[in-house]
Amino acid sequence: MKNYTITPTNTLQVKKQKIKILDAKELVFDRKKGIPFHEISDLAYDNGTLYGVSDEGYLYKFFIDFRNNKIYNLEYADVYVLKNKKAKRLKKKKRDAEGLALYKNNLLISFERKERINLYSKEGIKIKNIKIYPDLQKQKNYISKNKGLEAVAFNEKYGVVTAPELPLKITDKKYRTLYTRNNRFKFIASGSIVSLEFFDKNTILVLLRDFNYFTRRRVTTLLKVFLNNCTENRICKSKVLAKLDSADGWRLDNFEGLTHIDKNRYLMVSDDNENIFQKTLLVLFEIKN
Asked: How far apart, in whole angstroms, are the C-alpha atoms of residue 224 and residue 204?
């Protein structure tokens, strides 16, 4: 774990955001159980234990300690191979785990390619399938196999909430849509939805990513969507909290994961795509009052 500076030298760019970066680390770990440490897609935090899920079908476990608004220590404790109910490793086309969230004493994991949400134990063993909105059940509705269920979150009021990375073919492209088992919540935004996390009972945080392959410009956006403030057409009020743009000097990578720590503090992680030119970055930030 090495210190990393994500913020630009332009302090105006930092101050205008409605989040405050508290700490950032670059994570580099050796293989454990023969498994490489790469491609962290999402996070879930549970009372000092941090879980990370990988595109390759691995579940990573860490013990994390915060002191004075810093990541004081991060111990890489274990790694598990995601397995089905028969304790067999998932087939390759079913391993693309993208979203992760706590569900009582277990973990929700959402997948791409074979789009679904499953409940898993904290040791990576499948418990059951989770029912999803009917439009999400049909592969033909997705833009592509690699734009599936990128994110998942849960609370008692709304239940399991998920979202495809990009709008379904059958929806209006100017909106991004969140789905529960029986409802939809639309909001105006651009970019790809990569992570979800509840802010409070009726408000959900949405992490979006935008990347230009020609200019290499990255934009990471964090916004609130107010699920209890929507029109009859299910278009909900939203508010941008931060727009971090590499063109403004932000030292970004492929941020894909988000989890709540306590009060207004959150962690965000980047997926290194198993690329030597990219990094796994863990960023601690707080949402300003």
From this structure: 6
Tens digits of residue pLDDT in 190-232: 999 999 999 999 999 999 999 998 999 999 999 999 999 999 9
pLDDT of residue 184: 97
Which DSSP category does 132 fall into? -
As a whole number of angstroms, the distance between CA 268 and CA 110 comes to 18
- The CA distance from 93 to 115, in Å, is 10
What band does 12 get if pLDDT is binned at 50, 70 and 90? confident
Strand partners of residue 89: 83
> What region does 81 belong to: left with phi over 0, alpha with psi -120 to 50, or beta?
beta
What is the rounded end-to-end Cα distance, in angstroms, of the chain? 30
Q: Which tokens belong to 215?
A: 């200019």
266 pLDDT higher than 90: yes
Q: pTM to 2 decimals? A: 0.96
Provide Rg for the chain, Cα atoms: 18
Q: Residue length, the chain?
A: 289
CB 289: neighbour CB atoms within 10 A? Answer: 5
- Rounded CA-CA distance 224/216 in Å is 26
